Amino acid sequence: MGELDSLSKEISYALRHAPWEYELEMDEEGWVPMAQLLDGLHREAKWVDIERADVEEMIAQSAKKRFEIKDERIRAFYGHSFPMKIQKEEKEPPAVLYHGTARRFVASIMENGLLPQQRQYVHLSQDLETAEIVGKRHDGKPCILVIDAKRAWEDGVKFYLGNEKVWLADVVLGKYIKQM
Ligand code: HQG
Questions:
Q1: Sign of the alpha-carbon dihedral angle for 25, 41, 21, 8
Q2: For residue 137, which atom of ligand 1 is closest to its CA?
């Protein structure tokens, strides 16, 4: 793993899973002061020289859009797992969304719906290619599920914006899901 990938993993861990380990004060939208994040990272020998410019370079080089910097603050777009639920912007979804998953999870998903599991939200993909990449993390031959987001939205299911390729939802029932 390259240095920038390693930095992305570390910051994902800090902003999505364990902000307290880095003494971060996070607001309800997941923002933390950049200076606090850098201070937290500097306590580890590996990251003692890390500067804002390195974080910016990591974000620019990454294939996935995981973080956002605005003025003096940084946040993760999605993926959070700690108990304090991050408030996401509610938005009308595209008519169809996708979810790539393991074949072994499909029966349970069709019966119980897509559940957030360890995370705060269910993660959905804007396009097939993204769903394929997400699914491959769980299964070499992932199953792609097609979500009738239009019907779910019309029925009052809430969707939230992650980044332009990742959408979030609380739970998606099996009646809105078809296997490709
Ligand atoms: C499955 C990565 C059984 C669900 C990715 C998934 C994404 C069920 C797994 C982001 C279920 C959770 C999130 C049910 C859901 N029964 N299994 N009822 N409901 N599942 O990793 O969506 O690289 O928490 O299908 O690219 O795979 O970290 O979620 O397989 O955008 O930036 O439970 O994380 O982004 O797995 O991935 P995950 P995900 P990063």
A1: positive
A2: 27
What is the position in ligand 1's atom list of the atom closest to the CA of 111? 18
3-state secondary structure of 58: helix
The span from the CA of 49 to the CA of 58, in Å, is 14
For ligand 1, atom 4, name the residue with the nearest CA: 101
Q: Give this prediction's pTM.
A: 0.97
Q: Is the dihedral of CA 116, 114, 108, 142 positive or negative?
A: negative
Q: How far is it, in rounded angstroms, from Cα 86 to Cα 102?
A: 26
Q: pLDDT tens for residues 42-55?
A: 999 999 999 999 99
- State the Cα–Cα distance between residues 168 and 93, nearest whole angstrom: 10
Do residues 15 and 74 lie in contact, with contact meaning Cβ atoms separated by under 8 Å?
yes
Query: For a pocket test of ligand 1, which of 66, 88, 99, 117 has the largest count of ligand atoms closer than 8 A to its C-beta?
Result: 117
- For position 1, what pLDDT does the model report? 73
Provide mean pLDDT across the span 52-80: 97
Q: Which residues line ligand 1 (CB under 6 A)?
A: 64, 66, 79, 101-102, 105, 108-109, 112-115, 117-119, 123, 134, 137-138, 166
